[in-house]
Each structure stands twice: as C-alpha cells, then as structure tokens.
Amino acid sequence: MAQRYLSKTNKKISYKLREASFDLLSDFLVNLNNRNKENLQSLSEFSGTFKKTKLMEFIFLITAELRLDPLAGYHAAELLQRFMVKHLTDLFITPTPQGAATDPPKSYEGAVFGMLKEKFPLIIFSCLQLASKMSLHSHMINNSIAVHFLHSAGFSVSKKDVLESELMVLKGLDFRLDAQNPLTYVEILLEVLGHNEPSIPVDRLHPLCLHVLQFVSLQRTAIYGSLLAATVQWGSPSTEQREKFVTVTEDCMLLGVNVIAVATFIVIFEEWEQVLKELSHITGITQKSIRDFACVTLKHIIGTKSSAVFT
Description:
mainly alpha; disordered C terminus
C-alpha cells in the first residue's frame, strides 16, 4: 500500500505532556476560548454537513495509511467542511451557463453534483495534503506521494491534477488554513489539567482521548442526536430546538472536556469527580453539562441505555 512510498525515516513522534510553561498554556487557552466563541457566533446553516461518518472514516483511514499525525486528519476535516460549503455556495449562485436557461433548476444542480462526485476524493485528499503541511509532527505529503497513493487507491490522477486541486482548495479557503481543530482543544485542556492537578496522570489519559475523540467523530450524528434528545427529555425536538443545538455540535471546548471526562471515567474512575470539577473550573462549562455529555457518549461506547452506572 501507500507506506512503501514513504520515507523509512518517517517515525511517529509521541506527544509529550507537561512541557509547556504556565504563561504559554494561559495564552493558548485564552486564544482557543476566544476562537471557539467567535466560531459559534458565525455558524453556517450547513455546519457539520461534511463531517458525516463515511467522510470522517475516509479521512482517518488515509491519515493512518500515510502515517500522519492525527492532528492533520482533524484539521483536514475542518478544511473540507469550510471549503465545500463555500465552493457549493459559489457554484449555485453563479449565473446559469448560456443555453441552459430553459433547463429545469434540478438539471443544473445535478450537473454540479455530478461534476463534484468525480472530483470529491481528490478534494478530500487535497485538504489532507494542506493539513499535513501545517502539522509540525508529521512529514509533508508532496505531489509524488500523493499521486502514488491515489493510484494505489484506484484513482487515476496526474501531478498536475493534484496541484490544480490543491490550488483550487487554497483559493476557495482564501488561503486561510487556520481552521479550528478539536484535537488541539483536547491536548491543550490536558496540558492545563496536568498543570493545575499534577496528581492526575494526563499522560495515561492522552492515548485513550485519541480513541474517544475518533469514536465521537465517527458516531457524531448518533451521539449528538442522543444528547439533543436528552436535553429535551427524550421528546421530539422541534425545528427551532435543532437549529439552536448546532452551537452545541460545533462547540470544540465542550467536545474537548467531554473527551477527557470519558477517558477519565474509563481509565481512572476514582479521579472522575475531581477531573469534572477541574475541567469546569478551567472552561466555565458546568459540571452538569460535562457529565450529561459524557454519560451519553459512554452509553454509545458500551452500547446500552442503562444509566445506573453514571448516577
């Protein structure tokens, strides 16, 4: 597979905790909190549209196959979401080509989606390629690696195709690649947690947090659906409630504390209450909100609706 195209010297770099200074952590946390708030205040009605299970699975599989840092995969998912919403919006507001004005509206939409269907795998790969160039912990996917990998996956592309696709995504993003990354929130929160509570073995939590975050990302629709149902006391959510709930599904800080809380419950249950309290203190998110989200996530992990263990 694609590994044979990678350098033999490309080794996985382990993430090291407890090495950042207090001042640096404070700056990071304030910046992440501000960016999270800004993002929640300017959400698109299409937020999360391109974070479905199949897409996330595709991105995770390529990330693993190319031995990239997990950060690159989550970053790529955010770039894809932003690019596709803007790209589709631009395509649909473009005047209908001359000669096609008499065609039914759906025929133009069908042509657009038909065109994107062929290009979509390459667009996803371009987002991952760009994300790899932003990562400090993994090698950069150059065009040779890209072509070899895509050929091995059954896609017939040239270096020119790869370059043009990457440039199209760059232009579509207005050359802004600083997308929010949920894994960054998890790791910074772990750093702050470890600094504030040295007794908490954050180095043990980190590996499991990676698995929990991936699980939540792959089961995003089901987990957030259950959380919404629990929020409205398992009734049938109204359209207005669903629209307001988008701010919950896109809240990276809430997702970060949930992932750490779930990992804590599994690895060091005896520290569960202490960690909930500290995460609430760090982020301002109530312990109840963290507990409710963690409860829903854990139910999906163990595959049961029983809540006795969480009470």
